[in-house]
Protein 1
Amino acid sequence: MTTCASGNSCTVKKLSSIQSVAACPGFNVQLTLYTNRHQLEVTCSDKPNFELLRNLPNLQSFAFKELAYQDCPLPVGNQSLVELLSVFLNLTELSSIQRLFFVDNAKFSDQISLDPQLFASLPKLQVLSMKNSSRMPLDNPQLFKHLPSLTWLDLRQGDGDSRTNKALLHPLSQLITLELMENDLTTLSAEFVSDLPSLESLTLYHNQLEHIEQFAELPSLTSLDLTYNQLMTLREDVFDRLPSLANLYLEWNMFTGLPTGLFKHNSKLTVFHADNQHSSGLVLGDKLFAGLTMLQNVSVSNCKITMLPEGLFIGATKLSKVDLSGNLLQSVPENLFRDSPNLKELNLQNNELLKMLPDTLLRGTTQLRILILGPNQTNNHINNND
């Protein structure tokens, strides 16, 4: 069926009960409903004039709880997304969405600063993804002021922090999950990730981070992912104001050393992974994990480690899994696991161990079930019940 609007004609083609295409001069808009998650996907073939879809007969009406807005331009100035799309979508449905996914919107959008009005009339929004859309300037500190209920924010694949206001996230007091991966960040200022009392998970993998300031007070943060960056060192107080930190991921960086007092204020640390460091060799500070009574899993494989300090795990009584494989160890301190009665798995394969391991190394580790030693220069059996 063909209808006319403002002197132009648009046609609606119903592809199925869950999919329609509105074809107008110069652009198409496809509507697809994913019933299993109540998501409506709006996809543009070119820069559209949504006014041509106003009161368009036969355009299906969908009930949805989340919206994916793909390859379409973002509204600018004083126009909100709800206002922009309400010419052809139900206003009540739009205002009630809980999850919003912007996908590759930069292509047809004007490269100007986004305005807070963009998110007006979305009081129930909890999840917001701006994948690749964040290549547009995010320099308005009040951009998210209309999103008091937001708990999850994805700003991946942006252009780094060159045009991002350092106070951008401050209105999001309920934010729990923040994803900043693949943004070409070279530094991370403490101010940017601050005033977020509810934040539990921060993901920064696949950036170009070379330096990190001491994190601001983040009392609820439990998980921090810094994998695939270019970090060589960390200041000793970098994690001091993260009292709830439980899971730390530092894989695929360039670390040459981790200082002794790095975790002195992180008593809840449970999982530490720092495998595959691209450096001349990683040096672990003496007593790096000492006193961490919640620590269970440590993995530092393929880091060119040549020696381990004997006090590395003093007081880490819940330690259950340690992976030291793929390093350059020629020996292991005889009392390394003297405070580890719950150790269940130890991997020492692919090192350069030249002699029998000390008989006392695993004394008291009565829970040990998996011990991987080969290949090394010597393969040896240890009786941990001595």
Protein 2
Amino acid sequence: MTSPRPLRLAPGEVLATLSPDGDSTYFEVGEALGHGGEGVVYACASDEGTPAVVKAPRWTGERSPALEYERRWLRVVPPHPNLVRLLGTHRDPRGHFLVLERVHQNPLRRLNRPLVRQRLRGNNPGGRHVPPPLPTALELAYELARGIEHLHRHKVAHCDVKPDNLMVRLPCSEADPDDKTYFEAIARGAWRGVLIDLGGARSFLHLSRASLDPDRVALPALTPLYAPPEVLPGAWDEERGRERSRFSPWIDVYAFGLTLYQLVTGWVPYAHLDPPPDEARLDEVVHAKREELAGAHLPVARAPIERLDWGQLELHPTLRGKYSRREEFAERLWELIARAVHYDPVRRGTMRGLRGDLAELIGIAPAPPDQRTGPVGREWMQRRLTQSAFSGTLVEAARGGTRVDLGRLRRGGADFWEMQGMSPG
């Protein structure tokens, strides 16, 4: 029997693709970006030079269920600003390929690149990740909640929500913008949060069937650390005399709570335990989940929420009556996270409810029409004055929001790094 051959695309190869609208588009393949269990990813660019990525099966001539699911959901679920965009599909004897928009690491991941992190001054978080400024983290979480809610509205659960699957869309033509370009865009608010990797997504009906008869239904591929306790340890099945996992849309609610916690604090789930589980060891993660299901601990801790850098956030005058002290805001944020990661799925609430609670917490209001246009135009704005470590001087905008005063930035000079607490070296 012939062993499968790894699928490789040649740099410069041109793929003729069919767009979701039925138009023919062409993309030139670039360098390989990485590979996973079932697929490989290559950089590519359209005829107009727009950066994109090609996702292909890992083995020549073999089908990839994950790619088939992703293609299905990106065609069935209507487009949304907070979901990755399908640009085209291509099929040849090697397999079925997807061409997706090129998006970029979220600020949590970008800040913790070694070359960026070593430039941070006065920010030594110890063993945790460096979190984004609190307002940026909360806005990222709100964008993520919108994307998940959109999927749930169409009866689809993502099933693998985590920080690595939250990216940002930027208004730049570079495939990999440099730090200056990237952080300037973040400072201006010129970005959108984008939920990617729908290869593990399943319909609500599929999850119900998986709970009832897991031996006959393909189970979603979950990341153990972000999976809820009812999935990994499961429930005891009296008829079969074994544990049975329970799958539901509340998988996404739980994972959203853990992702929100990591965005605002920089701490990964269970890091407060002594010792914390090694996420690379399934047995340790399962043990932590069992203890969580028994009520021994939560996957998150209150202390990091109470120690947030509140110097980055000032309550808008319209909200000060509701939250007279920052401690009250922290308490509301903690209650939202703790509810989302409750061991009882029903107690977590829905993504629509959580998104609404988060919107109320951070003061979401409709954005003016002139701020809604373009690839990163937002339909919403958050009514807060912020002192962002990225942007330096913030001034109140005429419409009640915030804007960044970039007049002090000298392009190519040291001011940008100084204003975000970094050295320019």
